[in-house]
Amino acid sequence: MKKNVIFIVALLLASSLSMRAMTEREALVAIYKALNGPEWEADDAKGWNTNAPIKEWKDVTTDATGEHVEALQLRADDIKGYLPAAIGELKSLKYLKLRYKDREADAAQCIPAEVWTLPELVDIDVYIAGKGTYTLPKEINCPKLNTIKVNKLQGPFDVLLTLPKLVEVCFEDVNGDMPENIGELTKLRRLTWKSGNDPTKRIPASLGKCSMLESLILDNSTFTKAHVGNIEFPAEVWDLTNLKYLFLRNIADKPSTIPADKVAKMTRLENVILCRVSLEGNIPAEFFTTGNMKQFDVYENFITGSIPKELGNCIKLTTVQLNNNNLTGSIPEELGNCPKLRNLNLSKNPDLGGKVPESFVNCPDLAIFKVDGTQVDSNVSEPLKAHPKFSRWKFNK
């Protein structure tokens, strides 16, 4: 009888210990072991799995008490394995940054379900170099989440619409279409959507409702079709008057023009990159009215007309790429008013002619100047030949 009582007590004790919540230190140790921690470089592993306070462990940030983890960066080159369920014990975690550099990693296993239940999570940034894809869960219970950066993603993505506080979404190497009601995310300031696949349909019209957007990057990098008229340019982009940075590549193949009246209202633009989106017509001078432009790249389209002389208003301008279009006229002298200009690519505009402006002597950093595939005169003045970067300039042979 006595032996039975002892056995039952021992059983109950073992059961209570197994039910005890894992401490945050224990959770970190579990993470360390699951991610190949013993093989990390000494600097990456500093403090980990030792008796040192967890606030002294490399890339672990705690609250003022030193007891609760608020930020965790896992970026050692030797990370292997997968983030364990123990991450769910870090209830105060606000920021999670994880780098899977192992090319054999299975993307589907890289983010455990427990991550999406962290009540204080504000920012998640996960890069996966491995194979396959990761699918977001159908529910994300992170009410404070405002930034999500993940690559190797497979749709659907409608769960994003349940996260009204999102300020930044950055999806790279994504497979799937943007939610039709993306415009419901009215707090979005930065949106990056990069796909390795040809687009199957137009960018949703509701994107135009994301009026707080400051940065918009839409990129289908492998899309090679051109001017076949299947997918329309998302005209709502021109309604995003808060934009500073606009990058669109391979997202449309149906011809469209740039509306000057709407561009006139986009007074905060500083960087514009529009590549292979089947744009026709002239470049509106309204892009340059404010003088804020730093980069203006509209290349591999079907742009006609002359190069706007108003580009010369932009004294911060460093890059202009208008190559592979149908520009006419000559290079405006006013471009010499841009002393920081480093890259001017006008190649493969067969009807562009005239002379190289003498004012380019005022652009000492102009290292890339390309007018091959044009009618621009290669006979330049002696002052231009004395330009410190002249030997790099590329003319017709």
What is the gist of this entry?
By secondary structure, this protein is mostly beta strands.
Look at the helices and sheets and give the structural class.
mainly beta
Order of helices and strands: HHEEEEEEEEEEEEHEEEEEEEEEH
Report the helical percentage: under 10%
Q: Spans with pLDDT under 50 lasting ≥5 residues?
A: 9-18
Average residue pLDDT: 93
Strand content: 15-25%
- Number of H- or I-type helical stretches: 4
Biggest pleated sheet: 14 strands, mixed
What is the terminal-to-terminal distance?
103 Å
Strands, count:
21
Principal-axis shape: elongated
Order of adjacent strands in the largest pleated sheet: 1-2-3-4-6-8-9-10-11-13-15-17-19-21
Backbone CA Rg:
27 Å
* Assembly level: single chain
Please provide a written account of the structure:
- By secondary structure, the protein is mainly β.
- Helices cover about 10% and strands about 20% of the residues.
- The strands form 4 sheets. A 14-stranded mixed beta sheet has the order 1-2-3-4-6-8-9-10-11-13-15-17-19-21, with no helix packed on it. A 3-stranded parallel beta sheet has the order 12-14-16, with no helix packed on it. It has a two-stranded parallel ribbon with strand order 5-7.
- A hairpin with a 6-residue loop joins strand 1 and strand 2.
- The chain is elongated and about 80 Å long.
Please outline the helices and strands.
Layout: H1 2-19, H2 24-34, E1 60-62, E2 69-74, E3 95-100, E4 123-128, E5 134-135, E6 147-151, E7 153-154, E8 168-174, E9 190-195, E10 215-220, E11 245-249, E12 256-257, H3 260-263, E13 271-275, E14 279-281, E15 295-299, E16 302-303, E17 319-321, E18 329-330, E19 343-345, E20 352-353, E21 368-370, H4 382-385
Parallel strand pairs: 2-3, 3-4, 4-6, 5-7, 6-8, 8-9, 9-10, 10-11, 11-13, 12-14, 13-15, 14-16, 15-17, 17-19, 18-20, 19-21
Antiparallel strand pairs: 1-2
